[in-house]
Amino acid sequence: MPPEGSAVATASVALAGEARPSSLVRAWRRAARRPPALAGAAVVLFYVLLAVAAPWIAPDDPLRTDWSAIRKGPSAAHLFGTDDLGRDVLSRVIYGTRISMQAGVFSILLAMTIGVPAGLVAGFYRGVFDQLIMRLTDAWLSFPFLILAIGLVTILGPSLINATVAIGVGATPTYIRLTRGLVLSTREEDFVHGARALGAGDLRVMARHILPNISSALLVQATVSIPGAIIAEAILSFLGLGVQPPRPSWGTMLNTAQQFLETAPWMAWWPGLAIFSLALSFNLAGDGLRDWLDPKDY
Amino acid sequence: MFDYLVQRLAISVVTLAVISVIVFTGVRMIPGDPARVMAGTEADEAGLAEIRAKYGLTDPLPVQYLRWVGLALRGDLGESIRTRETVVVTVAKKLPVTVELACLSILVALCIAIPVGVLSAARRNTVWDYLANSLSLCGLSVPSFWLGIMLILLLSVRLHWLPASGFVPLWENPLGNLTRMLMPAFVLGVTLGAVLMRQTRNSMIEVLGTDYIRTAYSKGLRGRAVIFRHAIRNGLIPVVTILGLQMGALMGGAVVTEQIFVVPGFGRLIVESVFTRDYPLVQGVVLITASAYVLINLLVDISYSLLNPRIRVKGAADAA
Known about the structure:
A: 72% helix, B: mainly alpha, disordered C terminus
């Protein structure tokens, strides 16, 4: 982003006669004004840690069955209880973080990898290509997200990777639309005309001038669409179309738990609470990020 | 106005055409030989050839596509491999249940979204506003199927207030039907309500900042009169559009909700047809869902432009 107004800011600070805090410190101060967003970001970080360090944190092997401890309630030995095969629910929830995080992050990355360039080109060049892409996204968006994902998984076959691809493909039109809209308003800005006047080519204008200016909006969108992707993966796995047993996914765990609601309700508590808290934290962090990146908020 | 309608209609037709191509190629991309699926495992080569000839599976794909579209336009979507019933009849049997579920959950969503959204916009940056915002964030983040399971756990397993599943048709036993639809409708309505509440709040805040509202205040009207008589009319228009756009999410949500509460509707039909590899049914159901979505949003846009002259003029200006 162009360092607009920094000279003015320096001058006024110099007039006030006090040291100008570093940009990092200012960024932190502005973030600290939003405790819910910070809490959300902290919880997201916590889950990232869980996912990365699952083998060292989990108290037990998530696949180890114990026939002497079938559907036992929460206790000191098994803090979250055990499931229908005597596996430790806490360990399975911890390992499940890996699957949810992978599915959530990689599907949105996929959607952005396809959607952002497509939207950029469509919005920049307009014309026939733009019309073509917009009609395609119209049709694409007419399939309910989940039904499109279910259809794609039917074609590809149920697995974690295919579920991730299906969710990513389902989320792509959102990014095409968003990028295109942002490009349409940015390409008329003075600095773009300025870059053109200085002889910048299409590629340079798109990559060096437009993309950096729309990246924060795309980042916010990514943060708020990850929870949707995480929930979608859980739903696909819950329906038996995602991760296959015995791999510990929150969705498959809930699917099994549904059969034992009367005798082992704890099997349903934890995986659901994990999805809920992770999705909520992403949403809180995303809302905070939106305000934080908004220049009007300084 | 006429130009706008024609333009909007043309876009919908193109969209429907693209949808049909996507559905057709999608189903053709499913691994496996459709003739073998239809014939069953014990069929011999001659039987397979017969089926291929009967359904024209040896024709070039564009020919197959045109034939399929031609039949679909006349209301013939083929028949289910499993039950031998036509796809249209199968869907017609299941659809009313899902339409009822959808209407009830829209009702639930609106009952939550409008009062809470208007209140939080009118009392912006107060405790009420923060509370409402937290509520909607929770609604957006809670996985609906888990909420469903928790409700069953609380209201059926623990308290025995409501039956956990089972379905009785509305016309046979209205009360029994409603008690069984209460939980699914609530679960499906919560997410929608959270989305609509945010929209209501945002558009109400925008409307409350306009000049005509300031005029209404300055001529001495009380706050309540301004909000209910002046602001709400304009504030709720965008909510209708969002409601239309959310129909897709609602249909997707119905798939999971019907699965949990064992409601024999359209959503369960989709999952069943996928698991039994009933391709004509999958193809028909997905096509119907997507077309319904396009038509609903066409209707929303048209009614919207009829209600709001500004859109009409702007649409015409854009078209020119």
